[in-house]
Specification:
With about 210 residues, this protein is α/β, with parallel strands linked by helices. The chain has a single domain, classed as P-loop containing nucleotide triphosphate hydrolases (Rossmann fold, 3-Layer(aba) Sandwich). It contains 8 helices and 5 strands; from the N terminus they run βαβααβααβααβα. Strands 2-3-1-4-5 form a 5-stranded parallel sheet, with helices on both faces. The longest helix is centred in the middle third of the chain and has 25 residues. It starts with a strand and ends with a helix. The protein binds thymidine-5'-phosphate (TMP). The site of thymidine-5'-phosphate (TMP) has 13 residues, from helix 4.
Length: about 210
């Protein structure tokens, strides 16, 4: 599906994805790629509206399944409208979270179950998978300390919820070790990026050779 390269970044709240994805954009641009930086939920005009509903603290009554369907709805729009066309055009797509976030947050932490989420992920994406997923891993309390004051609906969940998210990501990586790489993200950004760079540079020749 497409000739571009598709990389996703994942991790608990405060794991430093935003910094790393910006650095990765520079690296790929320097390697001659046209880079599309995008995010979930969101990444399309409709998806950004769905994001607002999902993160609004006024929506405390939201059912776990409602939440999952909204993330998946945002994802379908994103794949169809943005990610798929960019990959077909040969771009490098860098996405701040993708379907593994639904597995970790809704599947593991909300308790819907990884198998149900996997089915819906497949429906929502039409089978579009990342070439590489990097999980930035660090202790939950270290991540939560990095958050600002106004927490959104998901950030404001209890530490035990975020602990389940972290364990969920580690399970995903165990199940798909070729695609999903875990990096210790508790150090300074440049040290973390050196690890990201090594992993991505291993993948690039494979993609360029296609
Ligand atoms: P962000 O803060 O990294 O932009 O992500 C928005 C929030 O949405 C974050 O708390 C993680 C959560 N999330 C899910 O619960 N399920 C998903 O499928 C995605 C993409 C994000």
């Amino acid at each position: 599906m497409g000739t571009g390269i598709f990389i996703t970044l994942e991790g608990i709240e405060g794991s430093g994805k935003t910094t790393q994805i910006e650095l990765l954009k520079e690296l790929l641009t320097a390697n001659g790629f046209e880079v599309l930086l995008t995010r979930e939920p969101g990444g399309s005009p409709i998806g950004e509206k769905i994001r607002h509903i999902l993160l609004d603290t006024a929506n405390a009554a939201m059912e776990p399944l409602t939440e999952l369907f909204l993330y998946e709805a945002s994802r379908t729009q994103h794949v169809e409208e943005v990610i798929g066309p960019a990959l077909k055009a040969g771009k490098a797509v860098l996405c701040d979270r993708f379907y593994d976030a639904s597995t970790a947050y809704q599947g593991y932490a909300r308790g819907i179950g990884a198998a149900t989420v996997a089915d819906l992920n497949l429906v929502a994406t039409g089978g579009q998978k990342p070439d590489l997923t990097i999980v930035l891993d660090l202790p939950v309390n270290d991540g939560l300390k990095r958050l600002g004051r106004n927490l959104d609906r998901i950030e404001g969940e209890k530490a035990t919820f975020h602990e389940k998210v972290r364990q969920g990501y580690l399970e995903i990586a165990k199940a798909e070790p070729d695609r999903v790489k875990v990096i210790d993200a508790s150090g300074p950004p440049d040290v973390i990026f050196a690890k990201v760079k090594t992993i991505v540079e291993n993948l690039l020749p494979l993609k360029k050779a296609r």
